[in-house]
Amino acid sequence: MATTSNSLPSAFDAHHRPSTDIIDKCVHCGFCLPACPTYILWGQEMDSPRGRIYLMKLAAEGAAEITPSWVSHFDRCLGCMACMSACPSGVDYGKLIEATRAQIERNFKRPSGEKRHRHFLFKTFTRPDRLHRLRTPLLAYQKSGLQAIVRGFGLVKLLPKKWQTMEALLPKLTPREAVPEVTPAAGNKRRRVGLLLGCVQREFLSQVNAATARVLAAEGCEVVAPQVQTCCGALLVHAGEEAAAIELAKKTIDAFEQANVEAVVTNAAGCGSNVKEYGHLLRDDPQYAERAQRFAANCKDISEVLMELEPHCERHPLKLRVAFHDSCHLLHAQGIRSQPRVLLSGVPGLELAEIPESAICCGSAGIYNLVEPDAAESLGDRKANLISQLKPDVVVTGNPGCILQLQAALARRHQKTPVIHTIELLDASLRGQPFDALR
Ligand code: SF4
Ligand code: SF4
Q1: Ligand 1: which residue has its CA nearest to atom 5?
Q2: How many Å apart are CA 235 and CA 402, to the nearest integer?
Q3: Cβ(26) to ligand 1 under 6 A?
Q4: pTM above the 0.85 mark?
Q5: What is the rounded CA–CA span in Å between residue 75 and residue 47?
Q6: Nearest to 72 by CA among 89, 51, 93
Q7: pLDDT of 250-264, one tens digit each?
């Protein structure tokens, strides 16, 4: 890595540099190292949180430049925030990596192929309308038997690795279950809540949104799902695309302000952690700064909302051994650990099995498995191996990215254990639906 004298100007531009106050809070103790998935994989200091913070410090002081090698250490970071949970000094690594990635996207010229790939991902996965149009050809690909042929004959291996990964992550598409603009509360209305629909989830895992609306309605919530809502910008903000993320954040706030709801419910951990940080993202905007703070304070994961509501509905038994997978953006970014476990434990007959290394990422991490497929695959395989040892009937988690990543990792082991969202299991219990109906 090229270094220059300390008197040289910072490698960062002046817009929202990674905070030196936060950088200086790091006392280099190393407690975060065993919690960091990339340090676990490669054992390299510069691929650990402490090493990355040091690289930020060097660049901030003009002692390092934004070179391909420097950037690679930040590209390899999953943004899983496990280091924040492990850090005794309270270093807010989330703010540092977000600012660093925005600096990279503004000040570093990525190779053209990589740039095109990232552009394609952002222009596809943040656009529900485009994902919707992809459903028909993808359904045809699956229903015609072409997918089985492509996979069976190993033809997928002829594709570049990044496209192989995308094919492997494609879930089995089912008829789309749209959530209406308003779902009335069953019985006495206890609350009026908004529902953030997400992008991939809206089109490819729509049963999760449908289950969320049903459970909320059954528990006395009127559910408003504004049809005008766009992507919340989570993928963009986590990848350093700050300007585009800000535009989507404003549109999301506008949509839910008009819906006049008491709380906005999220059921995708990555989206949830993003909308809870809108106050920070929009801090410079005179028209939105205060509104963003208010909006963020009213955003809640579905597990938080259900824990606040005293349960009114009967939980029917589900005799299942369930492995619960902590999504990093629930556990580390939102501090949500007990709520989904308590909800699942409330289902009679359900046996909860804890996955070892529960704080370590499965390798999904937004677009990480699409831009860093080898590292993501290693982490997915590690997680799938630990899950297999538990011999669960089903794996349950709170994030669509983790669902797709774990399904693909289990499939590589030829295991057919279903992976579903926590709310789908709860919905099945409330409806007295047999578990097989979820497969
Ligand atoms: S966010 Fe995750 S991958 Fe990145 S430094 Fe922290 S623990 Fe490591
Ligand atoms: S645990 Fe916190 S203070 Fe210690 S090295 Fe990691 S980031 Fe720095």
Answers
A1: 49
A2: 14
A3: no
A4: yes
A5: 10
A6: 51
A7: 999 999 999 999 999
